[in-house]
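Notes, p. 3: input format for complexes.
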Amino acid sequence: MRAMVLESGSPAGPGRLIPREIPEPVPGPGEIRLKVLACGVCRTDLHLVSGDLEPGKPDLVPGHQAVGRVDAVGPGAEGFRVGDTAGATWLYLTCGRCIYCVTGRENLCDRIRFTGMHADGGYAEAMVIPATHAVPLPEGLSAPDTAPLLCAGVIGYRSLKLSGVLPGQILGLFGFGASAHITLQIALRMGCRICVFSRDDAHRRHALSLGAAWAGRLEDNPPEPLHGAITFAPSGRVAVEALRKLRKGGTVAVNAVHMDTLPAFPYSSLYQERCIRSVANITREDIREFMALAAAGPFRVKINPFPLAEANIALARMLASDFQGAAVLLIPGAA
Ligand SMILES: [Zn+2]
Ligand SMILES: [Zn+2]
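Output follows (335 residues plus zinc ion):
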């Protein structure tokens, strides 16, 4: 099968993935195989090819927001049959036994493994995932529209929960890419007013067109202080700026798997029970809750399609903030 492979030892950068013909994976016990229809491109993939994150295996196939058709079911794999539609998320496997797993925080599992990081992902014609962590999807959905929900959407939903923002309050979104443009729509449904901070004029216009109450640059002050904020840019400076714009008791949720150093800031920015916290991974409960929201009323997901072979171009354009919304790889021959 065709796959885009991050070869060990290759020079870091967004041109790093090599198109290769590799053996089709065979599902082992408890696993299912997906014929991938579409796979979203995530900033985490950019961190992998850029060398910010170390791949968890040699010759890795990235991709952790894949929609596919089940075409093989391994021994003992439950819940899926050949022909079903299913999704793969960042959450490849959790142990179910550690203190985090048994207290509803499997996103922090001591033995957690990630799709497209420790196991091959969806930048390929097929992939294998544990049935326990695969997402059942309804028949007849649009695979390209659904793929970005599986990371950008779910992690945005978790970030919104961790921001502590309540219905009717003011939420700040810092950076406006794939995840933020879905998160904005969830928050709108909660009756929140949303202020978007982006250095990119086209991103600000996109935010306003989706219903943001205000859009400005990072250094601008919003019309009112924020009850909570989510930062999407992998920049410590942005997180500290967000903190400065909070009301008393507000939280900045940092939605980034990798970030540069947090600059020093005065304690007064943090005092009054303001909080800055990271958002790490997702739980299956997050996925279920978020997919139920998506089923209740579809989100307007802005898709930028690329053929699988152009994964490097998609990553380079993401690095350059060269499109609005989400990049999605379409797998040739998938139907
Ligand atoms: Zn992701
Ligand atoms: Zn665990």
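The first helix runs from residue 43 to 49.
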